[in-house]
Design a protein that fits this description.
By secondary structure, this protein is α/β, with parallel strands linked by helices. It has one domain (2-291): Rossmann fold, CATH 3.40.50. The chain has helices at 11-22, 50-57, 91-111, 153-172, 189-199, 214-226, 248-255, 275-281, and strands spanning 2-6, 26-31, 41-44, 76-79, 116-122, 175-181, 184-185, 212-213, 232-237. The strands form two sheets. Strands 3-2-1-4-5-6-9 form a seven-stranded parallel sheet, sandwiched between helices. Strands 7-8 form a two-stranded parallel sheet. Helix 3 links the parallel strand 4 and strand 5. Helix 1 packs across helix 6 (214-226) and helix 2 runs parallel beside helix 3 (91-111). The longest helix has 21 residues, at 91-111. It is globular and about 65 Å long. Residues 3-223 form the NAD-dependent epimerase/dehydratase domain.
């Protein structure tokens, strides 16, 4: 597929693009800084500028396409570009960039007849990660039916983006899939961070004791590109395993006392359920922290 990927220079995006290239897709990375990765083309774009977005989505991916009678159409758009968390810009700027950028990307894609759009939502939509004080889930494991009522600007922007995507899908009938991505872990971060998580599970409370390997996130994007006809859907994206060494029953007793448990869980099962992604698009994460940490 010919894929326009926004935000591919970021932590999550660069690993996703590497996976997509390995699957044979052609990728144009749209970002404010280029990605230095063999096989990927780059375009510097401000996604809050609708004109820049539309121009890029109708242009060449590389010099080789000059030999075509006209620029080919993109088969899919993957939208990851965003202010990636709170406390990087002002709250209102975070909200503005994330919501306006997402509107511009989906609007241009729909107007141009692109039939597949995948966008990055977030675990933060459930209101736990960036809450002031402690918030517990309404129930565990957390699935896509859990309420999304956050209080911070970043998570608010992601909830708005989901509503934007749902509305565009209803109007156009294209496939638009949102990924509620859990805490993204790069391969080098296992040895650096996970021994501390094993020693002190409380460090993972705000991430619902879950994570996703950046390479498996690329696999999830590819699964979405290959799955047609679902309309509008959102998916939790997380590893099968939790991010701490403590059995899930002990984690629940210590941190989620009184929180309803909706079903029996595996011994170390993540509290951030990926069952829907497994069922509908064939998601099957392969990379985990237990394979990376001695002992």
């Amino acid at each position: 597929m010919r894929v326009l990927f926004t935000g591919g220079s970021g932590k999550a995006g660069r690993h996703a693009i590497e996976h997509l290239l390995a699957q044979g897709h052609r990728v144009l990375n749209v970002d404010k800084v280029p990605l230095d990765l063999p096989g990927v083309e780059n375009r510097i774009v401000d996604i809050t500028d609708a004109g820049q977005v539309h121009d890029t989505m109708t242009s060449l991916a590389g010099f080789d396409e000059l030999d075509a009678p006209r620029p080919p159409s993109f088969d899919a758009v993957v939208h990851f570009a965003a202010i990636p968390r709170i406390l990087m810009t002002s709250d209102n700027e975070c909200f503005r960039v994330n919501t306006l950028g997402t509107y511009n990307i989906i609007d241009a894609a729909v107007r141009l007849g692109i039939r597949k759009i995948v966008f990055a939502s977030s675990e933060t939509t459930y209101g736990i990660c960036f809450a002031q004080g402690e918030r517990k889930p309404d129930y565990i494991p957390v699935d896509e039916d859990h309420p999304t009522v956050p209080e911070d600007s970043y998570a608010m922007s992601k909830v708005v983006n989901e509503a934007t995507a749902r509305s565009f899908q209803a109007r156009s009938g294209v496939d638009i899939y949102g990924l509620r991505i859990n805490n993204v872990i790069e391969p080098h971060e296992y040895a650096r961070d996970f021994p501390a998580f094993v020693k002190d599970p409380a460090l993972r409370r705000r991430n619902i004791f879950a994570y996703i390997d950046a390479r498996d996130l690329g696999h999830m994007v590819d699964c979405c590109l290959k799955t047609d006809g679902l309309g509008y859907e959102v998916f939790n994206v997380a590893n099968d395993d939790s991010s701490v060494g403590m059995p899930s029953a002990e984690v629940a007793a210590r941190f989620y006392d009184g929180v309803p448990v909706t079903r029996e869980m595996g011994e170390y099962e993540s509290f951030y359920s990926n069952a829907k992604a497994r069922r509908l698009v064939g998601f099957a994460p392969k990379h985990g922290w237990r394979d990376q940490i001695d002992g």
